[in-house]
User: Fold this.
Amino acid sequence: MSNLAVAIGAIVVLLVLIGLRVPIGLALGAVSLIGLMMVRSTEAALGIFADLPFEFGANWSLSAVPMFLLMGSIAYHTGLTGSLFKAARLWLSGLPGGLAVATNFASAGFAAASGSSLATAAAMGRLAIPEMLRMRYDPALATGVVAAAGTLGSLIPPSILFVLYGWFTETSIGALLIAGIFPGLLTAAIYSAMIIGRCLANPALAPPVREAVTWRERFQVLGEIWPIPLLVLGVIGGIYSGLATATEAAAVGALVAMLIALGRGRLTFRIFRDCVVEALESTASIFFVAIGALLLTRLLALAGLPTVMAQSVTAIGLDPLHLIIGVSIVYLILGCFLDPLGLMLLTLPVFLPMFEAAHLDLIWAGVIVVKYIEIGLLTPPVGLNAYVVKGVVGDAVPLTTIFRGLGWFLAAEAVIMVLLIAFPEISTYLPSQMSP
Assistant:
């Protein structure tokens, strides 16, 4: 069997194993190890298997992953994010579908503190869905907005997916994090416009909130949420100004979150210990999958598949638009079945050589990839954010209702993707203005 056939066979077997619900990290590692034995030798495969995990774990830039996770964990468990929905509700509840719009923007704020889509959906679900259902909002709208807005955690910095994409593609992690700002804000804005438009056309979806709110109350609540803007602006500002790398900004963000929580008397030793353990567990899970993906990358490289694919793209003269359309189709299909991290790390070894052969801007391509991963969090049958929301609401709202509510947000995502593909400057402008 030729090396190229081994590589293609490894990808097919890998997809079958994932379809059989084998943990993706284990599937990646096992298939890659056997493939390396076939392409080289048992001794060479074991040597690679012994060296790669250390090379990966010793990468300094990946220190940003546990630091961002720790920052988000401290912000959540010490209640720094608890007032976001309250503030958004007081300021936005007067709009058509105001509670849903408030949930959308509160989720954007929570995402900027946590960097996790699933954590954003879970936290905002507990805060916002009971309130919306109490105000007789349509259950599909109430649950759909929480599940959809939760995906902003993958895009708005700090984003763990951007950190891993930057490491994998050898692209500036800081530039990628900054590149997610405008697309994240665009997503939140289009979601809100869609909600307002639907509620204007059908007021029964979201009955007006009869609540007398004074300007004093609105400004008072801003005093409760000041730590989050300070934290986020500190991290983003440090990266954008060039004063700190992404890794340094992540460490400073974790430290500032801890100091704010201490200053407000909310950080006990037990909470800090739980936050550290949670960050370590999440980091270990991410790194396990990433090491498996790195082994797959080495297998494909030794088998020559990336070279063949890059040469094919060059030979047929595939332009960037057609390549992005093809990649989009693949991500939309695989996103229905794979978890976000696994989807990205499974596809990048195949797509990266094609991106480079087509001379795509890897920062722009990174935003497109992460956006499609976001969409995968919403599409059935394995729309993870929908299941997170289902876990929050229990039997109060059927899963089919949640997915029905997400249909409108997927339509909004189609508009967003057209804009991001047609106008790459939305993603690349801020990185181009960064201090060297």
